[in-house]
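STRUCTURE:
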């Protein structure tokens, strides 16, 4: 067995992220081998197509095997990308929202670690035997910001991690989280998507896809009627205003303290809110792999001490 490989995994509601990959949390089980090997995980005699759509909301990610199976797929992708042996010992680095970190840390670590035994599985037709030697958990959002030292020059900053289901908030004072300021708002991008799809159906009769909506919200072109594009843009702005209002109601002064917007929803803000709007003092961290990279970086620093 080679040296232990550190792999960071960000277990989102809408997408799984590693340092090099992002894929939807959808998981479709098959009793028999599917017609293709692409994105297929074989584990304990069952077949799973990974990344087809996204998971139904799971407030407790340990209640089913889904996120464990998605973690195996994430590990396989990283091992293959890094040119590592498929028989590997892994130090898994993951995260939890700071608001639930103390409550959920023990159960989530046990869920990922199991008993530390070797785990045989196949992914995309390749055999893997992975041993989860250790699981380290860190506050998500904060771990990502730590990789961007230039963002921590301010004495105080607000961090808004806009994920699939929640917007996780915290204030950092002298680069240290102020625990009393941590909030988790159920205003993630999934809520925005659902509202946009409903408004488009109600006003135009069209059933567009989330992928089409994502392109428009990210400021990219997409061939659809101008009235639909206009409606999506309008709803995107309303979503932003709703989040900014909720952040203010949670006790954060967005005009006084710089705000770091990160996560999958940060690009929605980036194309629609600037300093000139005088709504806030925005800083954008739009790398969706930032949390996973942060987890790996912290583990690396810990191992050199």
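SEQUENCE:
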């Amino acid at each position: 067995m080679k040296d232990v490989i550190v792999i960071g995994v960000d277990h989102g509601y809408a997408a799984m992220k590693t340092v090099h990959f992002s894929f939807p949390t959808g998981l479709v089980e098959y009793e028999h081998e599917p017609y293709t090997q692409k994105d297929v995980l074989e584990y304990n005699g069952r077949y799973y197509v990974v990344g087809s759509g996204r998971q139904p909301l799971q407030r407790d990610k340990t209640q089913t095997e889904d996120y464990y199976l998605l973690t195996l797929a994430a590990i396989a992708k990283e091992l293959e990308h890094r040119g590592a042996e498929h028989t590997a010992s892994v130090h898994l680095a993951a995260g939890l929202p700071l608001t639930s970190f103390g409550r959920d840390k023990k159960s989530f670590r046990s869920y990922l670690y199991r008993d530390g035994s070797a785990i045989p599985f196949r992914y995309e037709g390749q055999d893997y035997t992975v041993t989860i030697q250790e699981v380290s958990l860190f506050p998500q959002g904060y771990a990502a910001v730590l990789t961007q030292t230039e963002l921590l020059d301010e004495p105080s900053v607000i961090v808004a991690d806009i994920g699939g289901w929640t917007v996780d908030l915290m204030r950092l004072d002298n680069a240290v989280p102020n625990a009393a300021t941590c909030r988790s708002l159920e205003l993630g991008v999934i809520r925005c998507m659902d509202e946009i799809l409903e408004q488009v159906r109600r006003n135009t009769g069209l059933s567009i896809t989330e992928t089409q909506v994502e392109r428009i919200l990210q400021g990219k072109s997409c061939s659809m009627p101008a009235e639909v594009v206009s409606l999506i843009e309008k709803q995107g702005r309303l979503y932003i205003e709703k989040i900014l209002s909720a952040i203010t109601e949670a006790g954060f002064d967005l005009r006084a303290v710089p705000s770091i917007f990160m996560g999958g929803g940060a690009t929605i803000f980036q194309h629609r809110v600037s300093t000139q709007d005088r709504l806030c003092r925005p800083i954008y961290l739009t790398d969706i792999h930032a949390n996973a990279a942060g987890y790996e970086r912290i583990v690396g620093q810990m191992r050199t001490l």
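REMARK: The CA atoms of residues 247 and 254 lie 8 Å apart.
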